[in-house]
């Protein structure tokens, strides 16, 4: 229903600010859902999700500006992001604890600094493409990506593999003892998650007229993904959607008055959610509903 | 010649890496929580030193006597507000939750520092800032040399505390096996509190030294967290002097890379080393326990 409303949106309005807001929400949904899949369902926290977003953006932008069809460029971006994910996740997943989290953090910083060194110039869409630049296809592409991300997670959760991932998250040893291959499940979650993050990065590269290539690797993308997933409700299908709506809109509203203050508010909110309300907004909503139905 | 000069500077900065890593290693080793906001705590210590100097011209080395305890108190507060809830969980969940809490803290401290002190780079410039010691043809900045010596002295003092003092032994026993320690009558909760606050104080002192010899800004947090993590991964846990040696090793690796690859890749070399060790030998180069 929400999706149908969003889909019809460009037909009734031509306001670019609203379309831009929509695109930001959809990108946030895709990125947060991708983090949620790996961190929320498979229990593998990455603190360097920006690495995969950035790789998707870098590859897609380079190929697309170079003349490749958009679909090919997006697929290549997702592929490269996944390849890096497996490269770091493969060895790290054999070990428990923090290795994967700090490994991805390191990877994201290596890529950010190296890309900044090698490509210091701002990347702008070529003039020919700029003349025909239109927000509406960008709007639909990011909307489709957001819906696809939610669908992937929704289908996965109910599947055997998805249940296996959650079993691994809860207790790796018990999962192994019940015949659920922990390594296999973690790796599959990683492949899906990094591919989605790469696609989100690619969509960002297709959307943004000009940006520094380094920007797509900024830790801010990781912060966005983690905050949205947790505030919305980590390990739930709709949490990241709710979180993205809340986060992006609140960011817009607050940014008008005070620069950066939204990060402070969301940082504190995030700490509260981690400590007190592990289910985020989704959990708060269902608790509130239970209270209301009990009273009436 | 250039290489030797760079290596000297590498050793000097390496001492600070070691000090930063020692704090992280202490909290990780004892509480089994990984505080990724360690670099932000260091940044706060740096600002403490900077403002004491800028407002009242207090000598930066003297102000460490104030900054260290202040950060110790901040550590107490952070533990009481946040980390005491984390250590109640079993080991897997401990690490995961501490990563998340630390992650949230980095965001809060970073944004707070920008709001309070702007994003500008700052440094403490004393009237002896330019002083150097000449050793043959090589120059050694006096301030950095003092920082290195001080870092080593602090780690030695901490080592003695852990080896001899009653509470120090309690910390080591808890790190070894907290359940056994609890059975022996050691108040594990208070030992955690002390270890965490000590780790925070070490970060603060390291930050103060960074603000004298180098520069600070709100965004140095992630950089220093990574430096400390790299050293912890290189050196393993459990030994303060191991951290110190690991820090110097990282400083030397960076210095070598500056000579052969150029300045811009200085930060990358340590991280690549870190990833390689993480992938090939995750228990650390010198370490026993990973």
TrEMBL record, chain B:
Q: Which GO terms describe its cellular component?
A: plasma membrane
List where in the cell it is found.
Answer: Cell membrane
Instruction: Please tell me where this protein is predominantly located.
Output: membrane
Keywords of this protein's UniProt record, alphabetized? Amino-acid transport, Cell membrane, Membrane, Transmembrane, Transmembrane helix, Transport
Please give a single GO biological process term from the UniProt record.
amino acid transport
Q: Which residues cross the membrane?
A: 6-34, 41-58, 64-87, 99-118, 138-162, 192-216, 228-253, 265-284
Family note? Belongs to the binding-protein-dependent transport system permease family. LivHM subfamily.
Record GO terms (molecular function): transmembrane transporter activity
Give the membrane topology, semicolon-separated if more than one.
Answer: Multi-pass membrane protein
Write down what this protein is called: ABC transporter integral membrane subunit, branched-chain amino acid transport system permease protein
């Amino acid at each position: 229903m929400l999706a149908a409303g969003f889909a019809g949106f460009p037909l009734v309005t031509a306001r670019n600010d609203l379309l831009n807001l929509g695109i930001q929400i959809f990108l946030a949904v895709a990125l947060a859902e991708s983090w949620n899949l790996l961190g929320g369902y498979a229990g593998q926290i990455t603190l360097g999700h920006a690495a995969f977003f950035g790789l998707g953006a870098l590859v897609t932008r380079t190929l697309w500006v170079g003349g490749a069809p958009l679909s090919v460029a997006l697929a290549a971006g997702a592929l490269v992001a996944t390849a890096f994910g497996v490269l770091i996740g493969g060895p790290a997943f054999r070990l428990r604890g923090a290795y994967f989290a700090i490994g991805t953090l390191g990877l994201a910083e290596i890529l950010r600094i190296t890309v900044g060194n090698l490509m210091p110039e701002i990347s702008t869409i070529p003039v020919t493409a700029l003349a025909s630049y239109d927000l509406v296809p960008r709007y639909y592409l990011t909307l489709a990506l957001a819906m696809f991300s939610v669908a992937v997670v929704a289908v996965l959760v109910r599947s055997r593999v998805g249940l296996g991932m959650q079993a691994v998250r809860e207790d790796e040893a018990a999962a192994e003892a019940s015949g659920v291959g922990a390594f296999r499940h973690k790796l599959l979650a990683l492949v899906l998650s990094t591919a989605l993050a790469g696609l989100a990065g690619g969509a960002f590269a297709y959307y943004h007229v000009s940006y520094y290539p380094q920007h797509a690797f900024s830790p801010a993308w990781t912060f966005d993904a983690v905050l949205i997933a947790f505030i919305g409700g980590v390990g739930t299908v709709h949490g990241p959607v709710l979180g993205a709506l809340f986060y992006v809109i609140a960011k817009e509203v607050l940014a008008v008055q005070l620069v950066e203050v939204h990060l402070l508010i969301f940082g504190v909110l995030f700490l509260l959610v981690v400590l007190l309300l592990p289910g985020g907004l989704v959990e708060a909503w269902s608790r509130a509903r239970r209270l209301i139905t009990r009273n009436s | 010649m250039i290489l030797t000069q760079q290596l000297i500077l590498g050793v000097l900065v390496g001492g600070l890496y070691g000090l930063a890593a020692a704090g992280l290693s202490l909290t990780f080793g004892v509480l089994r929580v990984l505080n990724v906001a360690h670099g932000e705590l260091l940044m706060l210590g740096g600002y403490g030193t900077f403002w004491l100097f800028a407002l009242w011209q207090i000598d930066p080395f003297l102000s460490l006597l104030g900054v260290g305890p202040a950060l110790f108190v901040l550590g107490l507060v952070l533990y009481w507000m946040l980390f005491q809830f984390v250590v109640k969980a079993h080991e897997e969940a401990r690490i995961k939750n501490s990563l998340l809490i630390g992650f949230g803290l980095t965001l809060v401290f970073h944004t707070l520092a920008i709001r309070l002190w702007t994003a500008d780079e700052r440094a403490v410039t004393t009237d002896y800032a330019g002083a150097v010691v000449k050793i043959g043809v090589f120059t050694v900045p006096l301030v950095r040399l003092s920082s290195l010596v001080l870092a080593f002295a602090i780690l030695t003092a901490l080592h003695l505390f852990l080896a001899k003092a009653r509470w120090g032994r309690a910390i080591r026993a808890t790190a070894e096996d907290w359940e056994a320690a609890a059975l022996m009558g050691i108040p594990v909760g208070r030992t955690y509190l002390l270890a965490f606050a000590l780790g925070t104080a070490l970060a603060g002192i390291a930050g103060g030294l960074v603000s004298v010899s180098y520069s600070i800004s709100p965004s140095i947090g992630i950089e220093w967290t990574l430096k400390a993590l790299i050293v912890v991964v290189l050196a393993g846990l459990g030994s303060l002097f191991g951290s110190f040696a690991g820090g110097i090793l990282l400083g030397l690796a960076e210095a070598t890379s500056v000579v052969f690859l150029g300045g811009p890749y200085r930060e990358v070399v340590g991280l690549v080393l870190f990833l390689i060790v993480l992938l090939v030998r995750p228990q650390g180069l010198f370490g026993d326990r990973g």
